[in-house]
Design a protein that fits this description.
The complex is a heterodimer of chains A (291) and B (422). By secondary structure, chain A is mostly helical. Chain A contains 11 helices and 2 strands, in the order ααααββααααααα. Chain A has a two-stranded antiparallel ribbon with strand order 1-2.
């Protein structure tokens, strides 16, 4: 195998990994603050994908340009969901929360089936078949490059929001010390709903970005929920930077496994990496250890 | 004692008012009715619609293909009725592109009264359905499934009107040699990519086994398997490009075909040509999704013979009811599957399972749609007369290029470079 084949594989893996990282970020945001595992993660992302599909079909809008509207709509959806439904089970045992969100996932999949049907649907944008040439031997897929740039930009915005904005700091305060946050007068329930809304908005954005790369159909969701879990566990549940790092690791390991061994072993490698992390560093690469 | 008194005494004894003459007449009449009764009842059963369980993937990854197959089944009802075949009633089942659900759905169809099953497109699902049908003694007419052992295990209730893997591969080799000879361009090396499921693995395995026996002019330099539920195929295509094979041979399905083509264009992977054995690459959805980049792909697949009268009838039906769809193997083989069931019912004169099984064993249909000269089953339940063609995509249409007897166009081989497609 020559050097440039490996280089091209790693470049593609890196770009794909950034998109994976964005898709897992929503899960990390929600768990990091509210301590709820969103088992409808993939399904909400697929909603974002279908939204981008509709915008493309009706208005000819590039999925990247649909991101603000998709994020806004899913923010409202997430806010409403947290404030009216999930908050009612937050104090209940974990399995009750799981059941609720799993039920929500099934409802979303079936709603998508009813509205869009079971057929995989793709978009054909002007650059679907184009690539950038870097030098003579490095070829970068345009769609993947734009998707990765969008993923980095959105992740940066999110990290900046939580680090520098007043609301972001308030949300982090709730995550760090629930009682303390209440004592200082923060409206924790509203901040939790904001957080879920932000998590859902990130998923909407991730869905728009992902539509550049793959087809959408209602049954896509469970695979991405599982992938997101693998990524956040490797990166550290609750760590946003960890989600991005985990995504990149998964993207690159899949690319390498396909080239060095067999492509059908990609998933085996991802899960192998997960097992390794769980054995050696169970809190994840960038997660805080529990004492 | 007077005659009347004797009669009254007799009636009192027996409690009957029927005379001996009346009794004898009645018995004779009953005998006459009994002798024609079974015929009447038999014909009454034959007049009942045959309950056909149509098992297909209607959701999940293969939903598009399953829905496409159903179009062929739906076309069969009015067309076969016009041809004098008995009435049929469909019972539809969806196995959600999952093998275990195929098993349960087959059992459910039978429990709900299906007298014959037609399906199931997917090899793994069809194997599962076959086992249930064999246990429950209900005939299964396979519309599309290539796994060889379906008719190699001694099953008595399975009848397949579709070529199995070795048959597809054998005809593919014959057509490839003809293609290379006609065009004067022969690849020295070939890379094989296949989906890693029952269908892909069995077909790719047959390819490897038979290539040396057919003395093919190329060497298969790399065999790349990929996950049927893979999210993208960039790594697979990259590996294929790195393998150095002059031509690419794929065993895949529709979604994979679209992803692979996009990756090949983006990665500037330009083999001498792309040959496919299996579904996907000839599909309208594929050509719509890939546009000009989907042209020149050659599918080495079973196809229909447009010159046959029943083919023309089917094409006319599709032109009227599905004007945006070209007739393809999903339609034709499912159509023939329904026709086989109807033909068996007509000859059996009964919906009894054993009668249907016996009738299926003696099937001999020459007025068919596909390139097979007849539909008939050998002792394993396989139709040995099925044949394959070479079909090339051109401007959104599928054109038969081989065999010469069914060809409507000359092949484009080697394929045109991606950047030179207007």
């Amino acid at each position: 195998m020559d050097f440039w084949t490996l280089a091209n594989a790693l470049a593609t893996g890196l770009l794909t990994g950034l998109v994976y990282g964005l898709s897992a970020l929503g899960l990390s945001v929600i768990f990091g603050v509210i301590r709820i595992v969103n088992f409808a993660h993939g399904e909400i992302m697929v909603m974002g994908m279908f939204f981008a599909l509709i915008m493309f079909r009706w208005l000819g809008l590039d999925p990247l340009l649909s991101i603000p509207l998709a994020a806004a709509i899913l923010f409202v959806f997430g806010y409403f969901l947290q404030s009216t439904v999930i908050s009612r089970v937050a104090h209940l045992p974990d399995h009750m929360q799981f059941l609720l969100l799993a039920a929500l996932a099934v409802m979303i999949v079936n709603a998508c089936l009813l509205i869009f049907g079971p057929d995989p649907q793709a978009i054909n944008i002007s650059y679907s078949f184009d690539s950038f040439d870097i030098g003579e031997n490095l070829i970068i897929d345009k769609s993947r490059a734009y998707a990765a740039i969008a993923a980095v930009a959105i992740s940066g915005l999110l990290l900046g929001f939580f680090k520098y904005s007043r609301t972001g700091k308030a949300i982090r305060a709730c995550a760090d010390n629930y009682l303390g946050a209440q004592v200082v007068g923060l409206k924790v329930s509203h901040l939790y709903a904001l957080t879920f809304g932000i998590g859902a908005a990130v998923l909407g954005a991730a869905g728009c970005v992902l539509l550049l790369l793959i087809e959408v159909h209602p049954y896509l969701a469970p695979g991405y929920t599982l992938l997101a879990f693998v990524i956040v566990i490797i990166g550290g549940l609750g760590s946003m930077t960890g989600a991005l790092v985990g995504g990149i690791l998964i993207g690159m390991s899949e690319a390498l496994a396909a080239i060095i061994f067999q492509p059908s072993m990609k998933s085996a490698f991802s899960f192998g990496l997960l097992i390794l992390v769980l054995l050696l560093r169970p809190q994840g690469l960038m997660g805080k250890s529990v004492k | 004692m007077t005659d009347n008194a004797k009669k009254i005494k007799s009636e009192k004894k027996t409690g009957s008012t029927i005379s001996r003459r009346q009794f004898t007449t009645g018995v004779a009449a009953a005998g006459a009715v009994a002798s024609v009764g079974p015929w009447y009842i038999k014909n009454a059963r034959a007049a009942d619609p045959l309950k056909v369980g149509v098992l297909l993937p209607r959701s999940g990854g293969q939903a598009q293909i399953g829905i496409d197959c159903q179009r062929g089944a739906d076309a069969a009802l009015p067309i076969l009725k016009n041809l004098g075949y008995p009435e049929m009633k469909f019972m539809l089942a969806d196995f959600e592109t999952k093998v275990d659900i195929a098993r349960t759905q087959t059992a459910k169809l039978i429990d709900e009264g299906a007298q014959i099953i037609v399906g199931a497109f997917d090899s793994g699902a069809t194997m599962a359905a076959a086992q249930v049908c064999e246990q429950r003694n209900i005939p299964l007419v396979v519309n599309i499934a290539a796994v060889p052992k379906l008719t190699g295990m001694g099953l008595q209730w399975v009848f397949r009107n579709f070529p199995h893997g070795p048959m597809i591969v054998k005809d593919a080799f014959i057509n490839q040699k003809a293609l290379f000879s006609m065009t004067g361009h022969t690849p020295k090396t070939v890379t094989l990519m296949h989906v890693n499921d029952t269908f892909g693995s069995s077909l790719a395995g047959a390819l490897f086994k038979l290539a040396p026996k057919f003395k093919m002019p190329y060497k298969i330099v790399e065999k790349i398997s990929y996950d049927p539920y893979g999210r993208d195929l960039s790594a697979e295509v990259r590996k294929a490009k790195a393998s150095g094979g002059e031509a690419l041979w794929v065993v895949s399905r529709l979604n994979d075909a679209i992803m692979m083509t996009k990756e090949m264009v983006k990665q500037r992977f330009e083999p001498m040509g792309i040959m496919s054995t299996g579904p996907g690459w000839y599909d309208q959805e594929y050509m719509k999704a890939t546009g000009k980049f989907g042209d020149d792909v050659i599918s080495l697949v079973p196809w229909h013979d447009s010159n046959k009268p029943l083919s023309k009838t089917l094409e006319a039906y599709f032109a009227k009811h599905h004007p945006n769809r070209q007739v393809n193997p999903n339609h034709t083989y499912t159509f023939e599957g329904i026709m086989i069931a109807a033909d068996a019912y007509k000859r059996a004169g009964s919906n009894n399972a054993k009668a249907l099984q016996a009738a299926l064993r003696t099937t001999n249909i020459t007025n068919n749609v596909t390139t097979a000269e007849r539909i008939a089953f050998d002792k394993t339940g396989q139709n040995p007369h099925v044949k394959n063609s070479a079909v090339q995509n051109r401007g959104g249409k599928n054109l038969v290029i081989l065999p010469k007897s069914a060809a409507v166009a000359k092949p484009n081989w080697p394929m045109r470079p991606w950047r030179k497609r207007g």
